[in-house]
Amino acid sequence: VFPSLAKAQASVANEVYQELGQPSIFLFCPTEYCSSLCSPSPSQSCYLLTIGQELLPEISVIWTGPKVVSQELSAELLEEVEGVLQRRPIIWDNLYANDYDCRRVFLGPYTGRAPGLMPRLCGLLLNPNCELQANFIPIHTLGSWFRSELRSCAHPDRTGTCHSATGSSEHPQEGSYSPQEALELALHDWVAEIQRQTLEPGG
């Protein structure tokens, strides 16, 4: 019936979206959802080009970055993905996901995400550790990163571009996101939360 997998998926997704009354949030996860799955690259992938052309523009597309679990996200990559999909992607961030190896738990701060990404995103989902309590630091530091991004976008230039202060993790500029500072703040709040819970009946 369909000449390609991409056309089939886009057709079904469009029909479901319309049947549901065109909801304000409707997410589509493509078969090629990161750069390493694209052949030969995101911008030259026939699959992604078809998805970008055929999928209704109101439908959001999920993207995980260069890899399934991406250590870094850059504005340049997101710009390339936006061009081929003809929409800003929603990042499905697997930085902390440990469902593929439950012997490990990831407790470090949210890091490896370049400043100024927010204008390139339609949204961001954080895939957490499977262990509920272990997600305090990931979610807390994600909040610090998000607030930093909001501050950098508070006064965009005429083109709508956000300007984030840049700096290293060891020597961040004022107003920029520092993973180390975010981690220290998260640890402070986590200890306070643990102490509060121990004082509760049955804690």
From TrEMBL:
Stretches for region Disordered: 157-178
Organism: Chloroceryle aenea (American pygmy kingfisher)
Domain of life from the UniProt record: Eukaryota
UniProt-listed PROSITE patterns: GH84
GO molecular function: beta-N-acetylglucosaminidase activity
Name of the protein described by the UniProt record: OGA GlcNAcase
Pfam family membership, one: NAGidase
GO BP term, example: glycoprotein metabolic process
Domain GH84 as annotated: residue spans: 1-150
Bias-annotated ranges (Polar residues): 161-178
Lineage of the species this protein comes from: Eukaryota, Metazoa, Chordata, Craniata, Vertebrata
Gene3D superfamilies: Glycosidases (3.20.20.80)
InterPro entries: GH, Glycosyl_Hydrolase_84, O-GlcNAcase_cat
PANTHER family (alphabetical): O-GLCNACASE, PROTEIN O-GLCNACASE-LIKE
